[in-house]
Amino acid sequence: MTDTDAANVSLKDARELLIDLVSIPSPSGEEEAAAERLADFFESHDREVWIDDVGNVRAPGDDSVLLTSHIDTVPGEIPVRVEDEDGEEILWGRGSVDATGPLAAMAAAAVRSGVSFVGVVGEETNSRGARHLVEDREAPEAVVNGEPSGVTGITLGYRGFLAGTYVATSESGHTSRPDANAIQHAMRWWTTVEDAFETDDYEPVFEQVTTKPVDVVGGTSEDGLSVETTMDVQLRIPPSLDAESVRETAEAHLEVGTVSWDEPIPPVMESPRTEIARAFRVAIRAEDEEPRLLRKTGTSDMNLYAGAWDCPMVTYGPGDSDLDHAPDERLSLSAFDRSVAVLERVATTLVGGDE
């Protein structure tokens, strides 16, 4: 096989990879089968590839840019099918948007352009794949992280993330007594945290600290001698703040109980004036579209890459992010095709080829 043949990935090939990957269940922790299909794609196009110790698919190439997206999805079964909707072919299935669409588009563009590629695991839980990657390799010259932004969207910013677990115990007693129990202590602490970060309605969500309890368990202990409460909480951090200051504010209102915090993920806000951002604007305009610069209120692996690697980066990928994790998750195949073209053009530009 010649180098030209190896890089000759048709849109049909790219779509087949996409549909196969969406058809393979790959919730976090169960990515192995999808990773093997992805590795087979690179092997079939004569690219060096291996699956590393944590399950990432690594296909090294020209490090002018690293294309990377995540293999895992959230749980949920959506029957995989391609339907015609008003003359548009639409792929339905879990992960079609978040983020198997971006993943497959990047794999095709990486083979076409010869640049580096990594499919990482565990993004939807603890980002173990990205954490391993930044420890295991040097920084590339630029990074494109794969998440849905739409064909025209270039994501430059994400809020950070801080998760913690509150635990409190109180003596059991008759419910007519006025003393607060552990459940009330948890409720009161979290109410004060929410109040501490309350902002004016006009402030953009991206600039706010938002607070969310995600799980609460409480009640009388098995021996009947105490009331116990455990509450899992999450806080999203804007680029104007850091995780340490947010943690200190939350703990300042802690009077009863303890909180254990997970390792935080820092916020990120990239400049729109970098070479890679410019390359995306040019590539999107080449598709007769007007580029949009985005800031996301959530968090992605790009936060970790920005914290570890001193290089310019953006996030990009096909799909409507409003359909992330949704029961009607679906992706336009024509949008997928166009995103492959955009990614290939960007990669070719960054390695010094024609725009």
Topology at a glance:
Elements: H1 3-6, H2 11-23, H3 32-44, E1 50-51, E2 57-59, E3 62-70, E4 81-85, E5 88-92, H4 100-113, E6 115-120, H5 128-136, E7 143-146, E8 150-158, E9 160-171, H6 182-196, E10 210-220, E11 226-237, H7 243-252, E12 258-261, E13 268-269, H8 275-286, E14 292-296, H9 301-308, E15 313-317, E16 330-332, H10 333-350
Parallel strand pairs: 3-6, 3-7, 7-15, 8-14
Antiparallel strand pairs: 1-2, 2-6, 4-5, 5-16, 8-13, 8-15, 9-11, 9-12, 10-11
Summarize the structure.
With 355 residues, this protein is an alpha+beta fold. It has helices spanning 3-6, 11-23, 32-44, 100-113, 128-136, 182-196, 243-252, 275-286, 301-308, 333-350; strands at residues 50-51, 57-59, 62-70, 81-85, 88-92, 115-120, 143-146, 150-158, 160-171, 210-220, 226-237, 258-261, 268-269, 292-296, 313-317, 330-332.
Task: Describe this structure as you would to a colleague.
This protein is an alpha+beta fold and 355 residues long. 33% of the residues lie in helices and 27% in strands. Helix 4 (100-113) crosses helix 10 (333-350) and helix 8 packs across helix 10. It starts with a helix and ends in a 5-residue tail after the last helix.
Strand content: 25-35%
- List the secondary-structure elements in sequence, H or E: HHHEEEEEHEHEEEHEEHEEHEHEEH
Whole-number average pLDDT? 95
Low-confidence stretches: none
Report the major sheet: 9 strands, mixed
The tally of strands reads 16
Question: In DSSP terms, counting alpha (H) and pi (I) runs of 4 or more, how many helices?
Answer: 10
* Estimated helix fraction: 25-40%
Distance N to C terminus: 26 Å
Return Rg in Å: 23 Å
Which structural class is indicated by helix and strand composition?
alpha+beta
Net shape:
elongated
